[in-house]
Amino acid sequence: MATAFQLPVWFDLAATFAFALTGALAAIKRGYDIVGLLSLAIVSGIGGGLIRDGVFLQQGVTPLLTNPHYLYVIGAAAVVGLVLGERVHHFNRVIALVDALGLGAYACFGVQKSLQVGLGPTAAVFVGVVNAVGGGLLRDVLTREEPLVFRPGQFYVLVALAGAVTFVFLTAQLQVTATTAAFAAIGLTVVFRVLTIAFNWRTAAVTQPL
Q1: To 10 degrees, the CA torsion angle through 195, 201, 202, 207?
Q2: Neighbours of 170 (CB within 10 A)
Q3: Cβ distance 118 to 19 under 8 Å?
Q4: Nearest-CA neighbor of 64 among 32, 101, 109, 23?
Q5: Report field, pTM of the whole predicted structure over 0.85
């Protein structure tokens, strides 16, 4: 790519905070102690990036661990979750918006890093989607819940997939610069996610359970 898409630091940390907050709230709902709360906040906040860097790309120590600001933000999300508790629902719209922005941005970022290390477009899209939704998947696995992304529900993985495919198409096929392609993909992702929430667009079971 002629230019690389870079997440603004403040945006990256805001998205990490929103994702980590969902993990903290999940821990509080289940009555976990402080260890459980921090663990779920960590995997929800940076789990997708850890899977991307540790499992798929394997390019050395991930910056998610070498940069202490990520862990500071996750700690702040844990504290906010403890303080707000049930009152956090007053901020649901803000959290949903940041979540939608983070979903698109992390999908694009994961795709870009994958393309840069030589993965093909299809594999890069897969890694980008995992980057975007992997934290929530790990959170559900650790709490022994059936992962939400596997069950019929509002479009979420499909939203991340749309953003990842859009980014690949614009950069690999149309030769659009990475930053422009990322803004377009993130915009599409946010609109898609907002419409999904507003109109309750949902996936359906492929067959009826036995």
Answers
A1: -140
A2: 20
A3: no
A4: 109
A5: yes
